[in-house]
From TrEMBL:
The keyword Cell wall biogenesis/degradation applies. SUPFAM superfamilies: L,D-transpeptidase catalytic domain-like (SSF141523). This is ErfK/YbiS/YcfS/YnhG family protein. InterPro entries: LD-transpeptidase (IPR050979), LD_TPept_cat_dom (IPR005490), TAT_signal (IPR006311), TAT_signal_bac_arc (IPR019546), Transpep_catalytic_dom (IPR038063). It comes from the Bacteria. The lineage of its organism: Bacteria, Pseudomonadati, Pseudomonadota, Alphaproteobacteria, Hyphomicrobiales. It comes from Bosea vaviloviae. GO terms for biological process: cell wall organization; peptidoglycan-protein cross-linking; regulation of cell shape. Pathway: Cell wall biogenesis; peptidoglycan biosynthesis.
Length: 235
């Protein structure tokens, strides 16, 4: 069963969900190295509010029964508490609404514009598939259709059943919400997506995409309009 591109064989399933991005590493100019670091962005040594208790986390990451496909509760015991959603201090220059991805520390930030940022735990690209640079949210999708590329079908004929697209749902690799990243009007094929696999948060498993827990992804998605700036830091 595929659930957000990860199962017991994470490497194989990650290839199923995100294999098409790997080929882009040598074909797209999107991968522009960024010299900017956490300190320059005002995130170095952030002061953090008190973290969630387990009871609080169980509420924040509880079930979402009203969604198109009811989303189950997260087993928060499988997530390191440092990756629970938090508010941190931010004194950088990025405008409110900017998304900052810190793959080296497995965090995604949303700048709030009041001297703070919302921080989410994430999974990121595995070694050899991480990238850095600036992009923007070119479009947004709820329960997006996933279509395996032809190259993947050749490598893994079993995914040919989805050659015309896997409909949205709990087993779809893109999950409940997806932010599609663009540069210069072109879709990079990289995304920030919803994951229902708590074990993956705080690890490098993808071919360059960034996953948040479904409840965190909905929280970010609802507050992120198209054209929002995205900054991906070097790992």
């Amino acid at each position: 069963m595929i659930i957000d591109g990860v199962n017991a064989d994470a490497g194989k399933n990650d290839e199923i969900a995100f294999g098409r991005r790997a080929a882009l590493l040598n074909r797209r100019s999107f991968l522009v190295g960024s010299a900017v670091g956490l300190g320059a962005l005002g995130l170095g040594g952030c002061a953090v509010t008190d973290g969630m208790s387990l009871a609080e986390a169980e509420k924040v990451y509880g079930p979402v029964p009203q969604d198109k496909f009811p989303i189950p509760a997260v087993d928060v015991t499988k997530v390191d508490p440092k990756y629970f959603r938090k508010t941190v201090a931010y004194d950088g220059k990025e405008a409110a609404g900017t998304i900052i991805v810190d793959p080296g520390n497995y965090y995604v930030y949303r700048v709030e514009g009041d001297g703070s940022a919302t921080r989410y735990g994430a999974n990121v690209g595995r070694d050899g598939f991480r990238w850095s640079g600036d992009a923007y949210v070119g479009r947004k999708s709820e329960w997006a259709t996933w279509t395996p590329p032809r190259e993947m079908i050749k490598r893994q004929p079993e995914v040919a059943v989805w050659a015309r697209g896997m409909p949205g749902g709990l087993e779809n690799p893109l999950g409940a919400r997806t932010l599609h990243l663009y540069q210069n009007g072109a879709y990079t094929l990289y995304t920030i997506y919803a994951s229902s696999d708590p074990e993956t948060i705080g690890s490098g498993i993808t071919s360059g995409c960034v996953g948040l827990l479904s409840q965190d992804m909905i929280h970010l998605y609802d507050r992120t309009p198209v054209k929002s700036k995205v900054v991906v830091l070097p790992a």
